[in-house]
Amino acid sequence: MEYFQYGDIETEYLKRKDKKLAQVIDRIGHIDRPVDTDLFSSVIHHIIGQQISTKAQETLWKRMKEGLGVITAQSLLEAGRDKIQSFGTTYKKADYILDFSEKVQKGEFDIAALEHMSDKEAIEALSGLKGIGVWTAEMILLFCLQRPDILSCGDLAILRGMRMVYHHRELDRKKFEKYRRRLSPYCSVASLYFWAVAGGAIPEMKDYAPKKGNKK
Fold first, then answer.
1. Which among 17, 27, 72, 157 is least surrounded, fewest beta carbons within 10 Å?
2. Average pLDDT value over all residues in the chain
3. By the 8 A CB rule, do 146 and 114 touch?
């Protein structure tokens, strides 16, 4: 299994820039976060993972790989809508998967070109596809292309982790951008730590967001 590649250069930079994040990095240590190595299957993986839990995503992904043997445009197009849906996804996502597969197979979408695009260009290209929004595109850049500077303001767990680290009740776009500028060009590594914090890696850290129904 391959993991997101980072080391002392990235963590020491972040620690110099941000004392609160430095404490988190020292407490948690190195994070081994698996990455996808195949760009095509990474797109499919992230389409099926939208709006479901990570556990459900992995169960569905395992079924799909076992059912198809290999995840390619050809194997998906041959499988068709009903078979793809039978692995546990929705018909709408099955349609997105087939639309993407067809565009790749016909050469209407040059997937290999993404590797040579800037982050902004790659996000625009991916989010122009059916069923892929900015958040999904950002996750593909981070977890497949291993781009170093991705911090998604559309990721609820990242926002939760940031509130917990910086003790904010709310994190508006202005505050988010302040932190993004501070942590750049290694925002992707910072993202790994915000996710870890949001997932309970440091038990005594809490989310400062007001409880629903209590905005005082």
1. 27
2. 95
3. no
Task: Convert the pLDDT of each residue in 67-97 to its tens digit.
Answer: 999 999 999 999 999 999 999 999 999 999 9
β-partners of residue 34 are 3
Structure tokens given for 93: 């996502």
CA dihedral 22, 173, 148, 126 (to 10 degrees): 160
Give the end-to-end CA distance of the chain in Å, rounded to a whole number.
47
Rounded to whole angstroms, how far apart are CA atoms 212 and 154? 20
Sign of CA dihedral 107, 36, 116, 114: positive
User: Among all chains, which residue has been given the structure tokens 């809508």?
Assistant: 81
For residue 54, the model assigns a pLDDT of 85
Q: Note the pTM of the prediction, 2 decimals.
A: 0.92
Whole-number Å distance between alpha carbons of 87 and 103: 22
Bridge-partner residues for 3, per DSSP? 34
How far is residue 194's CA from residue 25's CA, in Å, rounded to a whole number? 10
The token pair at 42 is: 């990474």
Q: Burial letters for 150-184: b for 16+ Cβ neighbours within 10 Å, e otherwise?
A: bbbbebebbbbbbbbbbebeebeeeebeebbeebe
Q: How far is CA 196 from CA 112, 160, 164, in A?
A: 31, 10, 11
